[in-house]
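Supplementary Methods, section 5.1.

A reviewer requested that the exact input to the structure prediction be made available. We therefore reproduce it here, unchanged from the version used in the analyses.
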Amino acid sequence: MALISQADKNPFLYSDTNKRYHTYDYYLKKRFGGKCAKIPLDAGFTCPNIDGTVSYGGCIYCSGGSSARLCGASVPSLLEQYENGISVMTKKWQTNRFIPYLQAYTNTHTSPDILRKTLEDVSKFEGAVMVDIATRADCLEDEKIKVLDEISRRIPLTIELGLQTSNDKTAILINRGHSYAQFVDGFYRLRQGAPNVKIGVHIINGLPNEGYEDMIKTASCVANLHPDIVKIHLLHVISGTPLAKMYKCGKYEPMEREDYIRVVCDQLEILPADIVIERLTGDGIKNELLAPIWSLKKTTVINDIDKELFKRNSYQGIKGETK
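The structure derived from this sequence is encoded token-by-token as follows.
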């Protein structure tokens, strides 16, 4: 008699494995017909709360961007970065489908013309099936949204917006540089002005002074916005940041592993099932990470999230179904 696996017993609609949430890999395979590799790129832009447009210093957890720029070295061209990224990724996976990802800093913090030229260039890279850019909701002026709409009619386009928290007091503490209301305004103007664009939202668990209710409220706010994609991050204490000073002075205490797993599972239960979950935790850079050290074992954390959902007989969006 054949054994019944967790995948066989999985009640979650958007899965063909044991995963009880809508994974990014599942989404990409369904949309593009196979495995896709995301290639991180640095387009040379800065950030409005680093360069003084909004504030200085950046968010308290930010190390300031790419190590190449921090060391004063010139950043390779986008094409060079892309080709180098493909060389690395194809050693891991057999694929010819790639996603150029403008990751560093704020990639709409530039003029509409430069934004258009940058996106036109990367959209033509060999093997590119989609373009993905990271930015902020307060850097989406109308002319830039027009550019994003224009590009999205030529190639699939995802815009990732860093929210981090819906709590304005926390946003001030971490020097985020915008309020939740400003985020919502930018989110809806992007949704209305560029309807073909897929919108991703980033949130961070474990921010200073935030407890369980704050993290759940942020997830509830995101559920109500109903973006296409969500990334859930764990706050890392990185050497050399203002957060590192808080940590060393005893003014910040990182999340415990068990608490993080519980919070993520509770957040997944309230996020609608059709929202793609691109990330459940992040990778800490070993020689820069001060805390929490347990986050270095990313795979085991994700496995334990899977186990907790199975133990609960739960899955993404289950609480929304009971309303």
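The CA atoms of residues 239 and 287 lie 9 Å apart. These observations are discussed further in the main text.
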